[in-house]
Amino acid sequence: MSTFKRRDFLKLGTGLLGGFSIAALACNNESKPNTETTNKDSSGARPAEKIALGAFGLQLYSVRDELPKDPKGVLKQIADMGYTQVEGYQREKGILWGMTPSEFKTYMSSIGLTMIASHYDVKSDFQKNVDQAAEVGMKFMMFPWEGPGKTLDDYKKYAEEFNKNGEICKKSGLRYGFHNHDFSFKQIDGQYPQDVLMNNTDPALVDFELDIYWAVTAGADPEAFIKKYPNRFISCHLKDRSKTPVTDNGKNSVDLGTGMIDLPKIARTAYDNGTKYFIVEQEAYPNGTQLQAAKTDADYMKGFKI
Question: What's the pLDDT band for 45 if we cut at 50, 70, 90?
Fold first, then answer.
């Protein structure tokens, strides 16, 4: 989600945040991917294995204008497109769109969708949200916005907060995670704030969700960070960036596969280094409506091989 739009959400009367998309690879048995191998080359080298997602999902912020109009109807459309998992975001009606946890879980099951995680405003009603997330059966609570900090010490303080929140989530059988924007991948005093966050959080308590788009936008190499911190990035946002970007980065998100980011290559590096969930998100829609973009992205993911 763009910085501008996140601030818009923060200004809402409820003070709630917008969020972001989700798909899982088979490494955690959430889905069983299809595999294919190429023929051996002339040297007899072991054939390369391609992995295709056996399940994929959508970050509901991608359809943020449509979802409030008819939550059940839009969720059914998402399921019909081929998505089987979603990641929520918090707004005026919370993450369950006016439904009780029991009603929400039952409805999602009836249409073949599972909510793996949601983005939250952890500054407000955190324990209540943890209890609700646990009742629904989610795995993660993701915090999508902290900063930008002005100093590295600011990020050390953020890390302390993440550890505390991780303790609270752990007691309810959940994991706590942080989703990056571009600023944690911009150096301060010769250091990346993202390094500070990674090195000052307890891996037993805090996971990270790598938004590939924002890391690339900041000029960083997402693969380098993935390799540097294996098993720390539990999930990734698969989001493509325009080949002809404009100044407003909130407008540079494009249909998957049409931009400049090598998503299969980065996703494979993530998969090989412990990433379990791959989250699809789109924030701008140059080729149609939000629902049309969701369908286009679903079609892309059906053939996505890494």
Answer: low
